[in-house]
Amino acid sequence: MCRMTPDTDDGCYGFRDPGTRRQTIPIRSLIFLLCGALGTTLWARENSKTVTLTQKDNATSVTLSAGDHIVVRLPVTEGTGYTWQLKDEREILPLEGEPELEHSSETKPGQTGTQVFRFVAKDKGDAPLAFRLIRPWEKEVRPLKTYTVKVRIR
To answer: Quick one: 42 and 76 in the same domain?
Structure first.
């Protein structure tokens, strides 16, 4: 069992194991490590960029650095059953969360919405993004549209 006791050797407080007289986790070291980890995370987030791709970027390519983000925004006509589906997910460019559907301000049948996919570049390499506009329940049917972007992570 560990308890908090003053450390008479250097004046800091730490956890001591009563049976060994050895300080197991100095508080100063723990605070230093936590601040370093937090600073590294904040630095990486501030230095990453976000690239937003839309329908007009179909069949193009983009180059990113590890830690950068991609947001793909594709139009869908609500109520038709068609939805954009990611063909293959890559480990170096994983999907962050579930795709979102943004509705237009009007609420009438057949309105156009936007399906939003978010990705983060994890590691160096090539990770093509390929989407198909399909009705998920229809099998053996060609997609209504396709969307591809070549992504290179350096």
So the answer is: no
